[in-house]
Design brief:
The complex is a heterodimer of chains A (about 500) and B (about 200). By secondary structure, chain A is α+β, with helices and mostly antiparallel strands. In chain A, about 45% of the residues lie in helices and about 20% in strands. Chain A has three domains: about 45 residues, no CATH class; about 180 residues, Jelly Rolls, CATH 2.60.120.1440; about 170 residues, Tetratricopeptide repeat domain (Serine Threonine Protein Phosphatase 5, Tetratricopeptide repeat), CATH 1.25.40.10. Classes of the chains: A alpha+beta (about 500), B mainly alpha (about 200).
Chain lengths: ~500, ~200
């Protein structure tokens, strides 16, 4: 059969046979071809349904049993998930990422350790006499070098210079690309270590104390129970049982095995001795190097009856500045002094006063600190304290500083405290050691004359004013002396 | 378990959406009620979309479908389309099984002519000439493109509308209508014998 009318066929769409448009129904009523076509589809659909019809798999009882089984399964699954919660995807991802990072770090660390720590290595060393090479040798890990009892020894190790004092022994403990560790078994060594890259270390070990260098000139001295490290140039890190100190240029750190430390300054003599050991100064005979005990670094011995105890020995933190407590009068200026001085100049008087007071509690004989403290008090208008501090300086300091302190103290006594007898005493002392070229001489004499007048010694005062007029003619002091004399008349 | 079934029996008056809401809240006993209501539909879906699946496996697979429904309950949006939601799960399961089955047999080289061709349908009480005609329909049906056949089954046999079919097959409703139109056209054009039509008319 050929359906000549295509109207229904073309119009038929997904809605058929559930809904058919009204115009199409009207057409179908008068078109036999379309009527046949319209009859055809329900029959086909019925066949399709028949073909796709499936037999019932379960009766009601079987269905109920299956339903029960299903509920049981689902419940047990839920219980299982409650007792064994599943790892959330994000958590799992995070764990994977963390594990990867950890594994990467571990691998890198172990591989680099393996790469940089060959089982055994040796160092090529050169024995020097000044700048010239005397001989060469190979030093293996575990081997030791010893200097003769009456002569130092100078070596060059891959660009680093090591000067061993007499009766010293040095053992190579480790020699890798990243680390070179010598153990100072006895005596003292001075080292001039070339600047190193980050992570490349030159170390000297003394028992538990480890001295790490980046690039510097320094000396290490082994003591009975510890070591002393003096730095001429650069910075050295000293470590002991987890503690660590940085020793800078001009400083010396003495560390005891118990952890007690003492800070000190490197004197010019020590620095010279260090240079001698390193062959940088040849005019002095190296044979003259002192024997073990107070060699190179001239370390400061710990006094058992030292009243300072741990506080005295440790670095005092004052206003964030590391203070180095010297024993006795300081031989080199404390690096913190400049800071304190700048505080005083900038008017930071309280901070400077606190820092200096704290520092002087541990180093009561530091004249520079006393001078700064006296100046600080003077600026703060604490006149009595200032005079006391200047008195300390007068007792401790050499001539020049002492005279300055005398003048300053006298001026305060005269101007601010009205203590003219005290001022007379100080000014007389000041003028007794004055030179002709002393520019403060005229001013001091004027002051002395004024004090004489106050204490009733008018004639002495007049004589002093005449001295000023005669000796300092044409100066403002002479003019003032003239005015004072005119007043007296 | 008995308590669970009692609770499930108490939930028979609830509609599918309410039962799903209870399941999301953690009450798994309602799963039994849902199984009782829709297991036949799931069996049909599995049997029609995976014609090679044995009956025993259909029963086992229908349990799997309901377990999956339990897991995916949170994703159900309660729009009165529970049947489509469940049917979609069943269709995906059936297709996965069919694909794996064919792949397994292809790999093992054990593919042979199936002694029981799919969609045979019951033939008892059916005249011999009708059986022959029905065979023609079956062959045309099997030659239909997969998507058109799926749409035809879901529309003509299962009675879903185009929106529901779109959700099940993950296509747009318009795409459903187009496929349905083409499937019907193919069938009408291939089955045009007057004898076939007369025999059908006589039967009716």
């Amino acid at each position: 059969m050929t359906n000549k009318c295509k109207q229904l066929q073309n119009s038929i769409d997904w809605r058929y046979p559930r809904e058919l448009p009204e115009p199409l129904l009207t057409h179908v009523a008068s078109c036999s071809a379309c009527q046949r076509y319209l009859q055809k589809w329900p029959l086909i659909e019925r066949d399709v349904q028949e073909i796709l019809r499936l037999p019932e798999l379960e009766d009601d009882c079987a269905k109920q049993r299956s339903a029960n089984k299903l509920v049981q399964r689902a419940t047990s699954m839920q219980d299982h998930h409650r007792t064994h919660p599943r790892l959330q995807p994000a958590l799992a991802l995070l764990s994977i990422v963390l594990f990867s990072i950890g594994a990467g770090i571990f691998w890198r660390h172990t591989s680099s350790t393996n790469r940089n720590t060959p089982p055994s290595q040796s160092l090529s060393i050169r024995y020097l006499n000044g700048q010239s090479i005397v001989s060469t040798a190979t030093l293996r890990v575990g081997e030791s070098l010893a200097s003769p009892p009456n002569a130092p020894k100078l070596l060059s190790v891959s660009g680093d210079k090591v000067g061993m004092s007499a009766k010293s022994a040095l053992r190579l403990n480790r020699a890798t690309e990243k680390e070179r560790v010598f153990e100072l078994q006895k005596g003292a060594v001075a080292c001039h270590v070339a600047h190193r890259k980050r992570g490349v270390h030159f170390r000297i070990q003394i028992d538990d104390i480890l001295v790490t260098v980046v690039g510097t000139r320094f000396s290490v001295h082994k003591q009975k129970d510890g070591a002393s490290v003096a730095v001429n140039d650069g910075t050295v890190r000293v470590g002991l049982q987890g503690m660590r100190w940085s020793v800078h240029r001009g400083q010396r750190l003495t560390v005891k095995g118990s952890g007690r430390i003492r800070w000190d300054d490197v004197s010019a003599q020590e620095a010279l001795q260090m240079k001698r050991l390193l062959g940088e100064i040849m005019e002095t005979k190296i044979d003259d190097a002192p024997s073990t005990g107070d060699v190179v670094a001239m370390p400061v011995a710990f006094d058992e009856d030292d009243t300072g105890d741990a506080d005295t020995e440790s670095q005092a933190e004052s206003g964030g500045i590391k203070a180095i407590a010297p024993k006795g009068a300081s031989r080199a200026p404390n690096p913190a002094m400049n800071q304190w001085r700048s505080w005083i100049l900038s008017g930071n008087l309280t901070q400077a006063e606190n820092a200096l007071t704290d520092y002087l509690r541990h180093a009561p004989k530091d004249r520079l600190a006393w001078t700064l403290l006296a100046d600080c008090y003077r600026k703060a208008h604490k006149w009595n304290e200032a005079v006391s501090a200047y008195q300390k300086v007068i007792r401790l300091a050499p001539v020049v500083e002492r005279r300055r302190a005398q003048y300053r103290a006298a001026a305060i006594l005269q101007d601010n405290l009205g203590d003219h007898p005290g001022a007379v005493l100080l000014l007389e002392k000041y003028l007794s050691s004055a030179k002709k070229s002393d520019m403060l001489g005229a001013e001091a004499r004027l002051r002395l004359a004024r004090s004489y007048m106050h204490v009733g010694k008018r004639q002495r005062g007049k004589d002093m004013l005449n001295t000023v007029i005669n000796n300092y003619t044409g100066t403002p002091a002479a003019a003032q002396a003239h005015r004072m004399l005119a007043k007296l008349k | 378990m008995n308590n669970g079934m009692e609770q499930a029996a108490g939930s028979t008056h609830l509609n599918d959406d309410a039962l799903m809401a209870q399941m999301v809240d953690g009450d798994l006993t309602v799963l039994g009620e849902l199984y009782l209501r829709h297991s036949a539909m799931v069996h049909g879906a599995l049997g029609r979309f995976a014609p090679l699946m044995p009956d025993a496996e259909i029963q086992e697979m229908s349990q799997e479908v309901f377990m999956l429904l339990c897991k995916k309950a949170r994703h159900y949006r309660q729009q009165g389309k529970f049947r489509a939601f469940l049917y979609g799960i069943a269709v995906k399961k059936a297709r996965t099984w069919q694909r794996n089955h064919l792949l397994r047999h292809r790999l093992l080289g054990t593919i042979s002519k199936d002694p029981n061709p799919p969609w045979q349908g019951p033939t008892e009480n059916c005249p011999s000439e009708r059986t022959a005609q029905r065979e023609v329909v079956r062959q045309v049906l099997q030659r239909l493109p997969k998507q058109q056949r799926a749409v035809l089954i879901l529309y003509s046999v299962e009675g879903f509308n185009s929106e529901e079919i779109g959700e099940i097959l993950n296509i747009s409703p318009q795409g459903v209508r187009t496929r349905l139109f083409r499937a019907r056209q193919t069938l009408m054009e291939n089955i045009h014998s007057d004898d076939w039509l007369q025999s059908l008319q006589r039967e009716t």
